[in-house]
Write a structure and sequence with these properties.
545 residues, mainly alpha, Thiamine transport system permease protein ThiP, transmembrane, globular, 23 helices, 76% helix, repeat, membrane
Amino acid sequence: MAKRHDAITGVISLSFRSMKGLLPALLGVGFFLLMGVVCLAALLRYSELHSWFGYLQQPYLWRVVRFSLWQALLSSGISLLIAIPVASCLMHRRFYGRAALLQLFSVSMVVPTIVAILGLVVVYGRSGWLSQFLGIQVSLYGLTGILLAHVFFNIPLAVRLLLQGYDLIPAGQWRQATQLGFSRWTAFRWIEWHYMKKVLPGAFVLIFMLCFSSFAVVLSLGGGPKFSTLEVAIYQALRFDFDLNKASFLALLQVMICSLFALFVYRIAPVNRQDVSLLALTRYPLKDSYWARFADSMALLCVFVLVIPPFLAILGPIFSPLFFETLQSPALWRAVLVSLQIALPAALVSLVLGLCFAVLARFCMGRPYLAFLPNKIEHLGNMILMVPGLVIATGLFLALRDIGWGLQSSYWIVVWVNAVMALPFVLRALMPVMYQQERRFRNVYLSLGIQSWSRWRLEWPLVRVNVAQALGYALLLSLGDMGVIALFGSQGLVSLPLYLFQLIGSYRLEEGSCVAVVLILLCLMLFYCSSRFVGGKMGGVHVKN
């Protein structure tokens, strides 16, 4: 009886220590939810619900909704159709420049939108490279330009997500495929596709939401009201009309559409589980053939045509004399300083929030009565993609204005919105490794009573590369954001992307190209510093298959 009492006391004591170490995570997630409720309450306070039925009868609204859905579906489908053979090629082929290409994919996922748009204009524009060297004219403004920009952003993202799916395949299956002499197609049919289809729904939903809520791409390349999305309509309602009622209605409509779409996809998607025995992926060569080499060559050719040229176009002005003249502009360096003042705290806040979500999710994994929560917690963090950043910023501004903080709070609003908008990418980098560590070492931690910071000190060498990647993503996304700063930017709050947009809008394209070089070099420097100093010696060169 005494032994049983001691055992129960030990379990209660261990649970108490676990909850005590969980308190920071609960506070972080709770603060995230509180800010969301505050934004929603502030927007609903200024809304006129009786007028929302009138918006539903406007033909323009349904044209915007149809185009938003159509371009998002096309962008997601094209990106994944190209990414599947590219991911298979990168998995099975080892060639010179493969590691550099994967690192380029990591950066291109979060390259500033306005910089990528400028690179696309240089390549596909009326007087761009394609027109000068091949005589091919591309109608860049409209659906074609939007799809080109989205494919440029989403192919690298889709490839990285699909490569994570390959990490789910046990090495024994590859070894058996090699022993049986499987060809690439046979291995794809019987092994790869079984795991690929577990990753595809999540990748499709993520890319769809990013394209459905696209703002800067549609604003720059849409070419008019005919090619407008809900996000642009929300911006117009806030920026030009300051119609909070219409903006609230459009935002809730967007959230509803994205939620229904995500619910439908996740309902039919298979469960994604990782083998806890996987420590590292072991590669076993498969039977090669002419058709496999041809398919891999075509897949890489698509990447080199759609992704590489805009990067080269962005870096082209670095050799021009105007570039050095642009570096002497005080306005440029003021914009650089503002961008860093926004990006650094936003990235840290986003990383802290991501760690809070990850710690809370993995705490629930080992408890049978909480086993249903980890996916729900992760989806909660990803739901921010459904809510326009402009609406979050407006709701925060109204809430802070009601308590006496007006325009002086604009800076912190921009920082917070950038942090939460980067949260899904932070979670994408953190969650897989956190889940894996929990499954692998949970029993050891419980038997030894290791909790909280002691556990983090043991896990840090195993997760620091992923933490560095998450921090790098948050830095680059915050540095390149133009949505919220376009709404709240003022004379003293002009970031580098907004400064670049102003130059392009005033037809100073050559000077804008030089500013774009500064912005992309700053992104590369910050991403390298994050990988090197947070990720450790292997952080700068680590490439995960």
